[in-house]
# Entry
Amino acid sequence: MDIQPIIKIEHLSSGYNGKPVLKDISLDIYPNEIMAVLGTSGCGKTTLLKHLIGLLKPDKGTIKLFDKDIVNIDEVEFNNILKQVGVLFQNGALLNSISLGENIAIPLEQHTNLSPDLIEYLVRLKLKLVGLDHVYDYFPSELSGGMRKRAALARAIALDPKILFADEPGAGLDPVTASSLDTLLLSLKQQLGMTLIIVTHETASIKRIADRVTYLHDGKALFSGSLSEALKSDVSELRAFFHSSE
Amino acid sequence: MKQDIIKLPEYITFENAGEIYDQIIEIINNAIPSQIVTLNFESVKHIDSAGAAIINKINETASQKECALKMINLDPKIEQTIRLFQVDVKYDESEKQQESRFEKIGAAGYRFYNTLIEVIILLSNVFYWSFASFFKKKLRRKGDVIHQSILIGVNALPIIGLISFLIGFILALQSAAQLRQFGANIYVADLIAIAMVSEMGPLITAIMVAGRSGSAIAAEIATMTVTEEIDALKTMGIDPIPYLIVPKLFSIILTLPMLTVFANVIGIIGGMVIGVAYLDIDIIPFYNEVISVLRLKEIITFIVKSIVFAIIIVLTGTYFGLKVKGGSEGVGRATTASVVFSIFMVIVADSLLGLIFYLE
# Structure
């Protein structure tokens, strides 16, 4: 039986102010897999991510999430799709004016009918998952960069999304925390059946968790395949990427 | 022994977790101690974090009520998910304990004491560095006194001119109606001159500058604190007080008295318009009356007031800017607090100085 891709990108091209950033990218992402999007700085990884979550509109091509074209979709339907999507932004993007607990409660309060005590329990549970249950009442500005990132992950997985987009989740974390974060991402995939799209530079993390890898170079997808294929690939840029970090 | 068997649905997710939780909790709440409540997982195919959370919370509640909770026909995968979210969620009760009234009063007193000490330290630091950097220009940011003087002083001229004119105009209009009844038309000049120079001029100018430039100072310092620019200066061995604050203090001490002179003149002109148009007083007699009534005391009053107000505005902005907590929201809070407090302090200082100068 053929498995249908959960995300389908076809001939995606886009740019800023007429300058092309993404050039004819086609990519399929399947349910319950971890797809790592790699590439050097400025190659278009974050831009690709922003297209997948609807923050940017492409110049050409289609993007389908859950088999629905999100490029030409009405806002109400797209908001329903977004309820099944979690996004971990590069710098966390937590709301600074409210506490960590309140930050993580936002999606639970907005999209569920759970009682306030259950919401508080779930928030503490998600914070515990990322190892931050002791800072429930803290404000984002009172946390370190790594803690903010983990808190942002707790907010992104608050509703157990089917797809989790993570923009450099391990950046700025110490190796121990980064490794435990990877373990958490893996268990999210295994236990909750999440599909993860991770934009990253961390080769150690890629080797630990990625099922498949897409390598972007100068706005083009130079390689797309399994992790083992990527590690043996002849694509010189990809080889350089893996070898330079060894 | 009484037994309750609850058959759980196929899916326990965010959509139905709340309802299932309420139903089971009701059964547990009505259960007698040592009663067995059984959760039958036979049909359960999928459970998410909300489902796992309610199972764990039900477990906790059951053990508190001393009734036994049994889970049967639990699929290993479902059990794993429950275990993934089975975390020992401890609520810190000490944080939630209510403070008594006396504790609140004590804490408020302690906070006030700490604030007072901090303000005194800031004040002494600012004064010390003002003298030190007056002679050692290198301590200050290059060209900042002139730059700040333009921002605080020159750019404020139009709005202060307009407001002062209107104040003088209204003040004269209100008093003219009364003075006219007694044939004391010319005394409107005395009234406007004294009121503008010793009271309204310095006060209105200070309130305008507190709103315009005090808020800008607080916002600038608060943003620099939040974005660690102040820390960066300190690590470069640069004291932020002489580098950032003292130039602002110098420029505001320089410009506020000048702005007050400007406000006084424009305010008196506003009054003169009423005098000429409504009370039929000529410009020359009005001018002579104004000059004759103004003594050195009024001049000294407005200069002293302006300098005191200038110090209040800079110190308040700096204090709230440096004490900022939180991110962008904190900057907003600090700015608002700074403006409100500096206007309040300006009015308090105005009252005190009024008492000092006019109690004879």
